[in-house]
Write a structure and sequence with these properties.
The complex is a heterodimer of chains A (556) and B (283). Chain A is α/β, with parallel strands linked by helices. Chain A folds into 4 domains: 168 residues, Pyruvate-ferredoxin Oxidoreductase, domain 3 (3-Layer(aba) Sandwich); 181 residues, Thiamin diphosphate (ThDP)-binding fold, Pyr/PP domains (Rossmann fold), CATH 3.40.50; 69 residues, no CATH class; 103 residues, Rossmann fold, CATH 3.40.50. Chain A is 38% helix and 21% strand. Chain A has 18 helices and 21 strands. In chain A, strands 6-5-4-1-3-2-14-7 form an 8-stranded mixed sheet, sandwiched between helices. A 7-stranded mixed sheet of chain A has the order 9-8-10-11-13-12-19, with helices on both faces. A 5-stranded mixed sheet of chain A has the order 16-18-17-20-21. Chain B is α/β, with parallel strands linked by helices and 283 residues long. In chain B, 32% of the residues lie in helices and 16% in strands. Chain B has 9 helices and 8 strands. Chain B has an 8-stranded mixed sheet, sandwiched between helices. The longest helix of chain B is centred in the N-terminal third of the chain and has 17 residues. Chain B is globular. The N and C termini of chain B lie far apart (61 Å). The chains are: A alpha/beta (556), B alpha/beta (283). At the A-B interface, helix 7, helix 8, helix 9, helix 10 and strand 15 of A face strand 2, helix 2, helix 4 and helix 9 of B. Strand 15 of chain A pairs parallel with strand 2 of chain B.
């Protein structure tokens, strides 16, 4: 596997995410598959931000600790990341900011501030300058950079190109990154993939209150509202968010909401309402480090049990956990359809890594996600009863206005017509009806690939993961001849599929970003023995090195 | 359509003499007559919160969403934005909208969204058997405040005026004709309309005698004048003073509405090409 890792670091406000994205695009133009991790503290200016762009000939979803090239916009970056440098690593740095001696001989100082001043460039253009140098040192060539800048940063393009060219000319070539023959692919963040998946399955309204790491879904939806005909609302609180979405759904409009743990806490009462009133709804829950405010811009998988059991009372729900942008696109579409087919809340349980990381995305996947599947609609015969009993528990939907009919949704215990009742027999029947939907859903999911296998599919040692650990487990398993299994659906628990996937496994190791092993507990509750756990809960994702180290410690 | 055609078979569980009956009867007459006048009943959706007031949706054979405590406004907002053609009416209580869900009420007024909210303001929690609410007078001795409430009440009308509501009125459950005309005007108003109904709770805060003596209908007021509206609203601040209580329409103006921005948004049905071109633009 050919690969190359680049770290870009600086202070918040330096545009490190953008610089990383442009670096990723440059590598992508050479035919590489990209994974970019973006690490930033919760502040607007100052602090230390960095992006690690890993480019590989294979599809990847994880970083490694060592970097082949370090781009330092400040001194801090050199100090904090010196341990990542290999003997042959290249350093490109802003010579006006970084004055210390370089820890590598292959280093290249660029007088960025001076160049900007001479060219009359704006502060944000320093990235173009240093990326110019990057293209020179790695032999990527001027033309590729010019194409990327012209396409993606068209603002003040001539000035920007002049600044970039000065950076290019000021550097010298240290290596030649090979061009690969693969097709060119777009680079998208997991949150963009979630948005497009929902849109693909017929989303008409998106309601959200900004909260990291889900906020960029709201930004994308607002930006794309006009072309896709979406109604996008940013209300006063997460409580209002979910209830507005339920209002949309009552009137027949496919709606989704997005939040993170704290915001979801506020939604739980209305989640239970969706369960009782049978309101279809997609909820994107992007996890970050908790408890409480926690580490707002860092990752975790600490909300699995919360999402599975949130809300008072018992009601069916769907929880899917995409592991990268591809999963995010396909499963967000599926989740929205299933929410409507079963009139239930459906969760897209993401985490900071899936949501905010950048991935190469195969364009032909665009056609592979589910189209909007029509829900069960009322046939217009007789008197409409919103909660009509049926053999699969699903009652036909109708939306107002319907002449001569009334459509009654109810949070209280209710009868088939949606009129409140506390009658014991009806209470039991309605509870059975809702649980029947859970069984019908579980049965339908048997036809979906709810558990995915990677690596050596006969391997006796298996890494079991969910969410963003897909990337690291898959790659480590492939390299070490292990089996890796990814749970894509966490609820209803895909027991049969998981059992089949684990056939012949002698040692099952759960890999999770939490401190209690929530997926492992869930497996044990369903009779799956988990032998060991590798847990990480410092807010950072597993690197390939982290997981390899843990396996080696165990003699694997 | 006759008002009684809007009844359901649900058994009414309000206490005999409850002020909610007047609200129920008034809204039945209004919706039935509007149906006659070309506003078809199936285009109306009622949204209620939780509390004695909320049972009203069970008693009306009209589209409804019986939601949760304090949350009528966001549910109604979603319904209205989904289909701006619908006539969406919220029934809420003083605990419901002024305590649990106050933020939503303020935002509905701030947005001037085309909804109507009818506040069943009995100034006590009835269903939980007698605790003080945001409009209870200071010194109110309820189950949670046995020595008397130590808070000053909120004047919901003044609050709505400051927040941007464009139709503000007060009725009384002993005046069904006035309730009918206020409800109708509120529903017909384009923008956020708020009707505070002094709705007597016979079991936990029986104010019939006091209200009968003190209420009067304002006449000849300039409904476009915010200053005059404020002055009328301040004649009584929901305290325990024996001041006269004005009833009627206090304020009505036209202003841009939130829901207007969502009219005419039609979802693109065939999305494959757009998604593909979006992806290609990200190469």
């Amino acid at each position: 596997m050919e690969e190359f890792s680049i770290l870009v670091g600086g202070i918040a406000g330096d545009g490190i995410n953008e610089a990383g994205l442009t670096t990723a695009r440059l590598m992508s133009r050479l035919g590489y598959r990209i994974f970019m991790y973006y690490d930033y503290p919760s502040l607007i200016r100052g602090g230390h931000n960095f992006s690690i762009v890993r480019a590989s000939s294979q599809r990847i979803g994880a970083s490694r600790d060592e970097v082949d090239l370090l781009i330092a916009l400040n001194q801090d970056t050199i100090e904090k990341h010196a341990a990542r440098l290999k003997k042959a690593s290249i350093i490109i740095y802003d010579a006006d900011k970084v004055k210390e001696k370089m820890p590598s001989e292959r280093s290249c100082g660029i007088p960025v501030t001076e160049i900007l001043k001479e060219e009359g460039g704006m502060a944000v253009m320093k990235n173009s300058c240093i990326l110019g140098s990057f293209c020179r040192t790695t032999g990527i060539g001027w033309q590729v950079l010019e194409e990327v800048l012209r396409k993606h940063i068209p603002k003040e393009i001539d000035l920007n190109l002049r600044v970039a060219r000065r950076g290019y000319d000021a550097a010298s070539e240290f290596c030649q990154i090979d061009r690969l023959k693969s097709s060119l692919e777009p680079i998208i963040a997991g949150n963009q993939a979630i948005s497009l998946g929902l849109i693909r399955a017929g989303l008409e309204a998106y309601v959200a209150y900004p909260m990291t790491p889900s906020s960029s879904i709201l930004d994308s939806m607002a930006q794309w509202a006009e072309e896709f005909g979406l109604k996008v609302v940013h209300p006063e609180s997460e409580i209002a968010v979910i209830l507005m979405a339920e209002g949309f759904a009552y009137a027949g409009v496919r709606a989704a909401v997005g939040t993170s743990g704290g915001g979801f806490c506020l939604m739980t009462e209305a989640l239970s309402l969706a369960g009782m009133a049978e309101v279809p709804l997609a909820i994107v829950m992007a996890q970050r480090t908790g408890p409480s405010t926690g580490l707002p811009t860092y990752t975790a998988q600490g909300d699995l049990h919360f999402v599975i059991s949130a809300g008072q009372g018992e009601f069916p729900r769907l929880v899917v956990a995409p592991g990268d942008a591809e999963d995010a696109y396909l499963w967000s579409a599926a989740a929205l359809n299933l929410a409507w087919r079963y009139q239930i809340p459906a969760f897209i349980l993401s985490d900071k890594i899936v949501s905010e990381s950048l991935y190469s995305f195969p364009t032909d996947l665009a056609e592979k996600a589910e189209h909007p599947a029509p829900p069960l609609l009322w046939d217009g015969e007789g008197i409409y009863h919103r909660y009509q009993l049926s053999d699969r528990g699903i009652s036909p939907l109708a939306y107002p206005p319907q002449k001569g009919q009334v459509i009654k949704a109810d949070s209280y215990g209710h009868d088939a017509a949606g009129i409140t009742t506390e009658d014991p027999q009806i209470t039991r029947e309605m509870s059975d009806k809702r649980m029947l939907k859970a069984h019908s859903l579980a049965r339908e999911l048997e036809g979906y690939e709810t558990v995915k296998l990677f690596g050596q599919d006969k391997g006796r040692t298996c890494l079991l993961c969910w969410g963003s650990n897909k990337g690291v487990c898959r790659e480590v398993a492939e390299r070490r001849g292990l089996r890796a299994a990814q749970l894509l659906v966490l609820w209803p628990f895909p027991l049969q599929r998981l059992k089949a996937a684990l056939e012949g496994v002698e040692r099952l190791i759960a890999v999770e970003c939490n401190c209690t092993g929530q997926m492992a507990t869930l497996c044990r509750q369903h009779g799956i023995d988990v032998d060991d756990q590798i847990l990480k809960y410092d807010g950072r994702p597993f690197s390939l090195n982290d997981l390899a180290f843990e396996l080696e410690r165990r003699g694997i | 359509m006759k008002p009684q055609e809007l009844s359901t078979a649900a058994r009414n569980t309000w206490c005999p003499g409850c002020g909610n009956f007047s609200i129920l009867n008034a809204i039945k007459s209004v919706l039935a007559s509007m149906d006659e006048d070309g506003y078809p009943i199936e285009k109306t959706v009622l949204v209620s919160g939780i509390g004695c007031h909320a049972k009203i949706v069970d008693y009306l054979n009209v589209n409804s969403f019986y939601s949760i405590h304090g949350r009528t406004i966001p549910v109604a907002t979603g319904i209205k934005l989904a289909n701006p053609d619908l006539n969406v009416i919220c029934f809420s209580g003083d605990g419901d909208s002024l305590a649990e869900g106050l933020d939503h009420l303020i935002f509905a007024a701030k947005r001037n969204i085309d909804l109507t909210l009818i506040l069943h303001d009995n100034r006590v929690y009835g269903l939980t058997t007698g605790q003080y609410t945001p409009t209870s007078p200071p010194g109110f001795k309820g189950k949670s405040t046995p020595k008397g409430s130590i808070e000053q009440p909120i004047n919901p009308l003044e609050l709505m005026l400051s927040a941007g509501a464009t139709f503000i009125a007060r009725g009384y459950s002993h005046g069904i004709d006035q309730l009918q005309s206020l409800f109708k005007e509120a529903i017909m108003h384009k923008g956020f309309s708020f009707v505070d109904v002094l709705q007597v709770c016979v079991s936990y805060f029986n104010m019939y005698e006091s209200y009968n003596k003190r209420t009067y209908t304002v006449e000849g007021n300039d409904i476009k004048s915010i200053e005059q509206a404020r002055e009328i609203m301040r004649r009584w601040s929901y305290d325990d003073a024996e001041s006269p209580i004005p009833l009627g329409k206090f304020y009505q103006v036209d202003a841009p509405r939130f829901d207007q921005a969502y009219c005419g948004i039609e979802p693109l049905l065939e999305r494959g090409d757009e998604i593909r071109s979006k992806l290609e633009s990200l190469i």
